[in-house]
Design brief:
Elements lengths: L8 H6 L15 H5 L4 E6 L5 H9 L3 E6 L3 H7 L1
Parallel strand pairs: 1-2
């Protein structure tokens, strides 16, 4: 997948409620972040986010976390 750089991607992420900047603080306790004890599933390389958001809508009783390496791609996923 080739995506162009998104202007101000860093600022967009910093202001998004869906971006977890301090994720290391939740190591072993992501349920505190979600405020429930639901199962957690991880998607590595979430791209534009279509797959993970579809799964989240179909499975509201599961908490999903998407990981993406590049800010521009993550912004599109969010």
């Amino acid at each position: 997948m080739r995506l162009r750089n998104v202007k101000n991607a860093h600022e967009i992420l910093e202001n998004s409620k869906y971006f977890i900047k301090d994720y290391k603080n939740y190591k072993g306790k992501f349920n505190e972040l979600f405020n429930n004890d639901n199962e957690i599933r991880l998607e590595i390389g979430m791209g534009k986010g279509t797959f993970i958001t579809t799964l989240a809508k179909e499975n509201p009783n599961i908490n999903f976390i998407g990981v993406e390496k590049y800010e521009s791609v993550l912004v599109r996923g969010i």
